[in-house]
Structures are given as structure tokens and as C-alpha cells.
Amino acid sequence: MRLKLTVGLLCLATFGYAQRNGVDKFQQYRPIWEKGTLAQKDSLAAVLMSEAKTYQTEPEYRTTINLMYALGHEDKKAVLETIAKKKFPKGSLTRDAFITEVYYKAETAADKEKSYKELVKRWPVEKFKGEELTYDYALGTLAQSFAKAGDAKKATDYLGQMQERFWRGNGYLPTAQALLAAGDTTAAAPLLKTAMDDAYYYISLPEEQKDNKARFAAMGYASSMSSYVGILVNRGKYTEALDYIEKALAVAPEQADALSSVYYKSLMGTGRKLEAYNILTKLYAKGQFNVEGDLKKLYQDLNGTMAGYERFNAGLKEELVKTVRDHIKEMETYKAAPAFELLNLKGEKVSLASLKGKVVVLDFWATWCQPCVRSFPGMQAAQTLYENDDDVQFLFINTWERDKDYKNNVTAFIAKNNYPFEVLYDDQKDAVTGEVLAAKFGVKGIPAKFIIDKDGQIRYALTGSSSNVDYIKLEMKELIEAAKKPHKG
């Protein structure tokens, strides 16, 4: 099909982006949806809309729908979704829409169960080979709902219907943690052990057999192991707990930090006090100040006195500060921050220009981003530290939201958690590039934080975050105080 292309899109052929057999279309057009101008994106969207008239299969529609999302053409994405769902009423697009718009929005466990039964009746899992994980996700949230409702039996029964073994290392965990939160260790323990054992299976595979599924399964290992071993520790089964931990560290030494808390408690319980003390000092020196009670106890036991403890403690804190300062050097940069003017929760305009003369902390986040959410108590502590400093401003930039009703969701989230944050919506697209602010800052993953100095220069940029409140508070203090000082260019 011959289509008339605008000048902006003609460069596709020049740079070798023209469609080729065997090349994934989404990746083929990456240079345009990632770095193209608004004119190029609009031209490509127009071409794809015309091309869509020839589509015969649902996968063709799905790829182009994803492309429209990447190009920022939500209107055309919606049009194609409507056409595809009408054309394939029993296809995966209508199924996914049902899951998003009906199933996941069901509030009670009973309503969610009713929706799940409708889901598998209208779109039986056996008709979607290779997409079992979609149903496993749904089963995981259904089981978690029943766990929170106090129905451990139904929670366990639904988890048992999961088909993807690699997913169980992560999929079982939220339900087990919900049961633990309710004090039901009897029901939680076997779920955690299953998750732990499945993850261990993938971790211990020969390196040449480890694919993406195996690597993903391994991600849940430390959490399920810590929770399960935590149960053993609370039951006084220290020797059994140690066996599991040391077995884990033998095949996955990189999990040492994540297992430190249960490891030192197990060592204490079996009388291996010096080893426990060594782990505790490292934890404390990394900002885990909540372990100080046990640290003091072991210091007393090993030294026979508390003499010298305060000097020892101060030394650990100095070590932590040095570690943080060395770490933030890796985040150093010096470039002008992109200008912006965004709306806050009240509908008021907030611009970077209006904050000149202040150190500005930007935190890009989304309601669905768990690492973002886990870092918020620490960010709140950091903001509180500077609440009387008129030269520092924290801005929480809400970006990449997936729900059409994102503004209400964001407002509800902030209100529910009583966060005193200045939240801005990152939904203003650049007139030339079509990019939102996150793209202008080069954000590839969230949470992403930027520390901007009083002259509007980005001094530090970091991606990811700890959930350790004390560490975040200290890290942000070091970043902010460094940004207050003149740049040594």
C-alpha cells in the first residue's frame, strides 16, 4: 500500500528505519517514538492509522496500539482499540480491557472472585496458550484479597491454580505477607516455603540454563526467604533458620545484604555472637539504625561493659556518612535543568523559574511504582528535615500513570497516606517534541530524583531508591547540602 509521507517521515528510509521482514515494528520505529520530533511522531501515527485498515490479525492491532501509546497519540490508540475489540470480541484486547476496567477495580474479595469467574468463562486460559501469566497475575491479586479478608483457605486455593512456576517466587509473596500481617503464620509459612523453594530452583540452575524467567524468579528469593526464616526465628528455630540462610548464600552470595537481618538474629539465637555482631555493625553502618538495641546487647555481651560504646557508635555513623558521600559522587553532573511549568493538585501552576534561588529536589514517581511508594516515608523524613529551610523545595512529579482517572487516583493516594508533598502532574507535552517532563530529564526508570541548585543546574541525578528511612534522610541531606555549595567547575 503506497502512502504519501510528510517530509518529517521521509527520513525513515534515509536512516534505515523502513519496515523490513522479520523486524519487530515497535523496535523498528524506536528512533522516532524515543527521539523524534512531534512532526515525525504525528506523521508516523498518520501512516500507521492508514496501514491499520489492512490489518487481519489482532497482534497487528496490538503492536500498533502500543506504538500509538509510545508516540503519545492516546486518541488514535483508543480508536484502534475500539476497532480491534469489535473485530475480535473474544480476543486478548477485550480480555485485557475486562481485567483492567472490571476485574482489578472490584473492591471486595467476593466481587473480585465473581469477576474472575466471568473472566475465565469468557476467555478460557486454554485458548490463550503462552499467556498463562496474565491469569496468574489475576489469581495473585484474588488470593491477596482473600488473605486480607481473613479467608486463608480461599487465598491458598487460588494460588494453587497458578500455572507458571517461575512466577510463584513473586506471586505467592504478597498473599503470604498479607497473612503474616494478620498474624496467620500457620497459613503463611507453607506459601513462603513454596515461593522460596521455587525461586531457589531457578537460582541453582546452571548458568547456561538461566533465561529471563529464571532471573525474574530469583528476584523474589530474598524476600520470601527473609519472611520464612523470620517465622522460624520467631518460633525459636534458629538452627533450622541458619541452615536455610547458609544454603541460600552458598548459591546466591549476592543476597547477603537482603538476608542480613534474619541472618544476625539466627546467629544470635545459636550463640554465634561475634558473627552476629559483625553483621550488625555493617547494617548499622549502612543506616539501619533500628538494630541498635541488638547492637548494644551484643556489644555488652562481647566486651563485658558499655564503656566506649558511644565512641564506637559515632565511628559507625562517620563511616556511613563517608559511604554516602562516596556514593553521591557517582551521581554528580552539571547541566541546565529543562524549564517546566506544571499543575499541582490544586490546579495551580508551578514553574522551575519561580523557584530560582532555591535548591529543588525533583522526585519522579507513579502510584503503581512500588519502589517509589516504599521510598516515600524516607522522602517525607528528608522533607521534614528541611521544612523550615526556605532555600529548599521538594517537588514530587507524578508521571507515567496508566489509568485515565489518574488525577483522582493520585489525590486519593496522597490524602490516604497524609503525605505533605507538593505534587505536580507530568502531563504537559512539549509543543515541538511531544515529550513530557520525565523524557526531557532523560528518565528511563522510576523513582528518579534530581537535585537542582539555586542557578537551575542539575547537580545530582539518581534512579531507584532504598526503603530505609534513615538512609534516605541522610543521603538527601548530603545531596542537598552539596548542591547548596558553589559548583567546582
TrEMBL record:
The lineage of its organism: Bacteria, Pseudomonadati, Bacteroidota, Sphingobacteriia, Sphingobacteriales. Residues 331-485 form the Thioredoxin domain. GO terms for biological process: response to stress. GO terms for molecular function: antioxidant activity; oxidoreductase activity. TPR repeats lie at residues 222-255. It holds the Pfam family AhpC-TSA. It comes from the Bacteria. This is Peroxiredoxin. Residues 1-20 form the signal peptide.
